[in-house]
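G., the chain you wanted modeled:
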Amino acid sequence: MPGTDPATQGRTGAGYYPRLSPFSTGLACRCPRCGRGQLYKGFLSVVEKCPACGLDLAGADAADGPAVFIILILGAVVVPLALLTEAWFAPPLWLHMVLWGPLILAGAIALLRPFKAVMVAIQYRHKAGEGGGRLG
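Predicted structure as tokens:
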């Protein structure tokens, strides 16, 4: 279709790509264009190209954005819980470390992959890339 935005509905040799939600593809850690290919080749390493549709993801860089969101979310959850625990039970300090340290670590590890994938998908949706280059 002439004049059609390639990020929203493009025709390539691989076929038609419907406009997908950055949140659904990001939370599933899938390719932001086709929604089928794996986004990661390791824990946090983004693949160079989507194995399903061939989308070039070499310029995808979420930087520190996901970490900032995770810090804010975990802080908003853990700090009130720690304060309420202190007010209600007054446990010793070592128990706070045993409770909240692993919770924060597990929460950060569990949220980092999907949050980074959502940021990559949002970059794709808005045609942003590393250094002002285009993604996709």
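The helical segments are 22-27, 65-89, 93-125.

Shout if anything looks off.
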